[in-house]
Protein: Protein phosphatase 1 regulatory subunit 42
Amino acid sequence: MVRLTLDLIAKNSNLKPRKEETTSRYLKKITHINFSDKNIDAIEDLSPCKNLSVLYLYDNRISQMTNLNYATNLTHLYLQNNCLSCIENLRSLKKLEKLYLGGNYIAVIEGLEGLEGLRELHVESQRLPLGEKLLFDPRTLHSLAKSLSILNISNNNIDDIRDLEILENLNQLIAVDNQLLHVKDLEFLLNKLMKLWRMDLNGNPVCLKPKYRDRLILVSKSLEFLDGKEIKNMERQFLINWKASKDAKKISKKRNSKTKDASNSLYTTSKFGTMHHIVPVYYSQVRRAK
Structure:
């Protein structure tokens, strides 16, 4: 077991201290720390590294996000492929822009309130119990509504992503190998995400639905890449023209149907319209006439 300490950082840093430089001043200069794949299981106090901006701790055995709240200048945090089960102690990282948490045991995306500068969130391939799916805390989604531009939620057994509609500045959504089933749900989402230009959904059941690609291209003017394949202007224009022609035929058919109904109504009126002038003759009237 290995703990990430200041001594360990100082010994392994590429940035070497100058002669007669104090430890405190030396630690302040460190901006990047890379301890990926070092069997680290815990993080100790890193507050003396006041200018730390990028921290690589992927492929370790870390089970808790501790002592990170003091790294207030952190912009990039790489914690993928560890043993984390929840997101915690990150709310003071106001400058955080990119967060990598894929390959952990996280069941709920939460605890990111206040991170209004977060642009990228990668939470793919969580190791969840059989039958469970990754969930989003509405408070976290609300907090990231204006900042998040890239979201990776691949391979998390997710069957509904309509809640992501709040992410108004999202431009890349990677959600491959999930359980998305309904094209209508995706159409709903694309109508909300007006800046989305890339969406990857390969490996979802919905990809096998008839006209899946056509329907999504038609509903989104901003989408440029779908499932790794570019949407060319010619393809989009062809579909727009095809839909316009189809809609025109429907309207024409309805008009013809209404005209036919109106003609039938006029014919019926002309044929039977004078019937009310005929005075019925009753048996009693016939007897009096005699």
